[in-house]
Write a structure and sequence with these properties.
The complex is a heterodimer of chains A (333) and B (324). Chain A is an all-alpha fold and 333 residues long. Chain A is built from 13 helices and four strands. Chain B has a two-stranded antiparallel ribbon. In chain B, strands 2-3 form a two-stranded antiparallel ribbon. Classes of the chains: A mainly alpha (333), B mainly alpha (324). Chains A and B meet through helix 4, helix 5, helix 11 and helix 13 of A and helix 5, helix 9, helix 11 and helix 13 of B.
Chain lengths: 333, 324
């Protein structure tokens, strides 16, 4: 075994261990505290959990590759809202009136294109100006949100298409549509990050950008592609979610970036880049959703969820540091 | 010779670009609307910028020391709610110090984690953003806080009072800015903050206690947040739990506009004040032009990126990044 292998195994498995702990805790605590008769680990409840994980989970997959690449994206919540508006509004445009239900794929496509372009714009700015991704996407988070408000003021944008709602509420082999999307995205990004040149380069750039440049990797295009991917996924998340709900408020998606980053960090991805995995992120997403549902199950209110998730995030960071000290040498200041 | 001048122009722009832009911007808006720079309007802009401004002063210290603070928004909600609640329970004389103590305790906790435990400040303050929000909701039970007897208390003086014809929030903003400006620019502590942010390893080897310096920066930031919360509470005499939500980003935007680098080691209090005023005047100018308030978000986006880009471009002498 290489030095540090134990701690890295521990770190990779930690999130799943945490999920098991949560399941045990909420099952037992639920017996005593829950108001409902249903067990926490009820099959339907778990399926619902997977479905509810999808909106955050789909974006978190994109965030994993962006953070591994050494960047961060704070604008995902705003892109999410813009894509939702494009989706719902475009279905009512007069030019598409003759399409009937064929308007659905057109609206999906438009929303996904909008998200991809907004993400790519962030990437292009990071690439060409050399401004830190944190600043670029912080600005974009404000700017894109402003665009959302400019569209329809503070009013919600609504359009219900029942064919679309049926599709979003459909179940295939017992799993909801949203769950299938989450699974497909997870597999696709896992493949991209572990089996392709682009993925390997993304890790290399995040780990040591100068070395990557010296090795002849074109840093800029890789970063831009990753921003386009996260923009696409933020839009996909919106498309999946709003197909079902049919109404978007201009404030929707706010704080999503925080939930998503929390999930990614809980899943063991290094915030400074170069290390992390999609599978870990999936664990992080499920762990957060379990926590929200579980605390609800034992009768705690939303304020406790915020408190607990914040503290767990910090606890994970402390734990991670303790595990890393021996393997890396303590001279890092 | 030509290159010399070009470099000189570049360095002037790098150093004073934000001031030049600010001046041009003020002139343009004044031409568009003569009311823009009237005393009344200026007072109203600075007064409404004071809350964000005071928080930005504290965050400037944190950013110069090479860290981030995303928790100031929810921390301000916390201090606003706490001081309003305690006002009716133990009276304003005790409520204010009690609120300061509680907010400073939160700041100390963050400072301990980032300074002494050496944890990543982005994640720690992200976690604290969520945790303090939960704490505030737990404290208030999710209810709005209101002062019962709004007329019979002197508590409104911080947000609504005037002294010598100048609104008190402006005076407090100016006082805190002057104090922290001196602390950062003229004391050994200020130089330590720059040293720690510029090169932490070198600072440690030259005998500067990095952990203690970072810790103190977070304490200062929390003190500023408590002051901002006090003004907010006193101005509205009642508050929702989410009053500070999202302010951390506007605060960071102001600090970045002022030219502080997120890598640490650069920035000044004076420039942060300029950044705050730019944001405030943009917001006001756009409203005076009859535009909706959310247009300012888009304008802020463009200005932040342009400001930082030009700053970097002037330093490297090239407009576009050399990244392949």
């Amino acid at each position: 075994m290489q030095p540090g292998a134990l701690s890295s195994t521990l770190r990779k498995g930690a999130i799943w261990g945490f999920i098991v702990l949560e399941l045990i805790f909420f099952s037992i605590a639920g017996e005593y505290l829950s108001l409902s008769d249903k067990a926490f680990m009820d099959y339907d409840n778990m399926l619902l959990l997977l479905k509810q994980s999808a909106p955050i989970g789909i974006i978190a997959m994109g965030m994993t590759i962006v953070i591994v690449n050494g960047n961060i994206d704070l604008s995902v919540g705003a892109i999410f809202a813009i894509a939702a508006i494009v989706l719902l509004d475009s279905m009512t445009w007069p030019i598409f009136a003759g399409l009937g239900d064929w308007v659905i794929p057109v609206a999906w496509l438009l929303a996904l294109i909008a998200g991809t372009l907004l993400g790519a714009l962030n990437g292009l700015i990071v690439w060409k100006t050399g401004v830190d991704a944190f600043i670029v996407t912080l600005g974009a988070m404000l700017g894109y949100r402003g665009i959302v408000f400019m569209f329809n003021g503070e009013n919600p944008t609504s359009h219900l298409n029942w064919t679309l709602v049926d599709f979003a509420e459909a179940e295939f082999l017992g799993f909801a549509t949203a769950t299938w999307f989450l699974a497909a995205v997870t597999i696709a990004i896992w493949f991209l990050m572990t089996k392709t040149v682009h993925g390997r380069n993304a890790y290399a750039i995040g780990d040591n950008r100068e070395a990557a440049v010296n090795a002849g990797i074109r840093v800029g295009p890789h970063m831009m592609i990753n921003f386009a991917i996260i923009g696409f996924l933020a839009a996909l998340s919106a498309v999946v979610f709003y197909s079902e709900s049919g109404s978007v408020n201009p404030n929707d998606g706010q704080l999503y970036e925080l939930w998503v980053i929390t999930a990614v960090v809980l899943g063991g991805t290094k915030i400074t880049g170069g290390a992390g995995s999609v599978i870990g992120t999936l664990g992080g997403v499920i762990a957060i959703q379990l926590l929200r549902k579980g605390l609800g199950h034992i009768g705690a209110d939303t304020s406790t969820v915020n408190l607990v998730i914040g503290l767990i995030l910090i606890a994970v960071l402390i734990l991670d540091r303790q595990l890393n000290i021996k393997s890396k040498g303590a001279l890092k200041i | 010779m030509a290159t010399m001048t070009k470099q000189q122009i570049g360095s002037i722009f790098a150093k004073q670009g934000i001031l030049i832009a600010f001046a041009l911007f003020l002139i343009a808006f004044t031409f568009a609307n003569p009311k823009f720079l009237s005393i009344d309007n200026t007072f109203s802009v600075v007064r409404s910028s004071a809350i964000i401004g005071i928080m930005a002063l504290g965050v400037t210290f944190v950013v110069i020391s090479g860290n981030l603070d995303l928790s100031v928004g929810s921390m301000m909600s916390f201090s606003t709610i706490v001081v309003l609640d305690l006002h009716d329970k133990i009276g304003p004389f005790l409520a204010i110090p009690a609120m300061f103590a509680m907010t400073l305790a939160l700041g100390a906790f963050i400072g301990f984690l980032v300074g002494y435990m050496k944890l990543n400040s982005l994640i720690v303050t992200l976690g604290m953003l969520s945790a303090i929000h939960g704490l505030t909701l737990t404290y208030s039970g999710g209810q709005n806080m209101d002062i019962a007897d709004k007329e019979g208390t002197w508590f409104s003086v911080f947000g609504q009072g005037t002294a010598l014809g100048i609104p008190v929030p402006i005076l407090m903003f100016a006082a805190v800015a002057a104090l922290l400006g001196l602390l950062l620019g003229k004391t050994p502590f200020g130089r330590k903050v720059y040293a720690v942010g510029g090169n932490g390893t070198a600072a440690t080897f030259s005998g500067i206690k990095r952990a203690r310096t970072v810790f103190t920066c977070y304490i200062l930031s929390a003190a500023c947040v408590a002051t901002a919360g006090l003004i907010q509470a006193s101005r509205s005499m009642g508050s929702q739990n989410t009053v500070g939500q999202g302010l951390e980003l506007e605060v960071l935007a102001a600090v970045i506009l002022g030219g502080a680098s997120l890598m640490g080691g650069s920035g000044t209090i004076f420039k942060t004040v300029i950044g705050v005023l730019i944001l405030g005047f943009i917001q006001n100018g756009l409203l005076l032009m009859g535009l909706q308030f959310y247009v300012q978000y888009v304008v802020t986006w463009i200005i932040i990126i342009l400001a930082v880009w030009l700053d970097i471009a002037a330093k490297r002498g090239k407009l576009l990044s050399p990244i392949a």
